[in-house]
Design a protein that fits this description.
alpha/beta, 9-stranded mixed sheet, 6-stranded parallel sheet, about 35% helix, about 25% strand
């Protein structure tokens, strides 16, 4: 069987630290064909390290290399252009979050993937963790907690230095540090903590609940004279009438051993649900008195992006669950877009 021909557009720090090593685990079915990024020296270093046949600063050379699967990990402002080009070239795509900055472009990618019968996997790594999959099964079993009425989403992670241009995040590849503008130039990033991290929390919460945003009010804080926000406080109304909050904060490096703090709580017409990735806890209560608590090994909720890479086996026709489809990515984008508009306008903004 011929191997899947791999192309990578935007081989930055996270691609080098996570995506490419995880793809090496599939060396029996993946051929490293073409890679692009800016900077000849790091590009050549990546070509040699992973054995790419083509290395170019022009992403079109990746698209034209005859690829079957493509990893898009360029700055967020280019995701739409790069993902659309890869899909039109016939490739299945893994795209980094946020899928796009503009929700119209995100939903356009949904339609493009459908039209071309291509799979798009969004880089929401938590959705593939065994702990989260068990939470999803519990949430869905027997009608779950009924009609969801209220949702609380919180996240804190070590991005204080990254978003204030005073350092990098702890998991950055040391031989390929991220370009500051990728995270702190709104034209490239779309914003700060919301785009960089809350997209993950939303991707988790919306996957578990199936909700879609309707209206958003947001406050954002850019401490340390940062060019983008470090902290977010967001109020949400969902399309089913449920309300909730979404809070994000840039923690200090070293706090909580650099462990992400992510929690989702939901109250429904028939019960309540909680998942806490920091404390490795999943809980569901249903009236009249059904109480289920699942506990896991320490660090079961640690983030990794192995699952989305493994899901690219969809390109081989394997029966693999896509726990982070492009439609889910679009639902996160439209909420974040409304949040940034609300932070600027000072009023409640409709999701569009």
């Amino acid at each position: 069987m011929a191997k899947l021909r791999l192309g990578v557009i935007g081989a930055g720090s996270w691609a080098v630290a996570s995506h490419l090593p995880n793809l090496e685990r599939h060396a029996d079915v993946v051929e490293f064909v073409a890679v692009s990024r800016l900077g000849r020296e790091p590009l050549e270093r990546i070509r040699k390290r992973f054995g790419f046949q083509i290395a170019s600063e022009d992403y079109h050379d990746v698209i034209n290399a005859g690829i079957d699967i493509c990893v898009v990990s360029s700055p967020s402002g280019f995701h739409y252009e790069h993902t659309e080009a890869a899909l039109e070239a016939g490739a299945h795509v893994l795209v980094e979050k946020p899928v796009t900055i503009d929700p119209k472009q995100a939903w356009d990618l949904v339609e493009t993937a459908k039209r071309l019968n291509r799979h798009v996997v969004v880089s929401f790594g938590w959705n593939y963790k065994p702990m989260v999959r068990e939470a999803k099964s519990l949430m869905m079993a027997g009608g779950g907690i009924g009609k969801i009425e209220q949702v609380v989403i919180t996240m804190s992670s070590q991005t204080r230095e990254l978003l204030s241009n005073t350092g990098v995040y702890p998991d950055a590849a040391r031989d390929s540090l991220p370009e500051p503008a990728t995270w702190t130039d709104p034209r490239l990033s779309g914003g700060g903590y919301g785009q960089a991290q809350l997209s993950h929390a939303l991707g988790l919460a919306l996957w578990l609940t199936g909700l879609r945003g309707k209206d958003v009010f947001a406050l954002m804080s850019a401490s340390l004279a940062a060019p983008v926000e470090l902290h977010d406080a967001i109020v949400l109304r969902y399309d089913n009438g449920a309300i909730g909050t979404l809070a994000g904060g840039s923690a200090h490096i070293g706090a909580n051993n650099n462990k992400h703090q992510v929690e989702v709580r939901a109250i429904g017409s028939k019960g309540q649900f909680q998942i806490d990735l920091d404390r490795e806890l999943v809980w569901r209560f249903r009236v009249p008195g059904e109480d289920v608590r699942l506990s896991f090994e320490p660090n079961a909720g640690l983030y990794d992006c192995i699952g989305p890479i493994d899901a690219l086996d969809l390109a081989l026709g394997h029966d693999v669950e896509n726990c982070s489809p492009i439609e889910l990515g679009a639902r996160t984008v439209e909420i974040l877009d409304a949040a940034y508009r609300s932070a600027r306008s000072g009023v409640l903004e409709a999701v569009r």
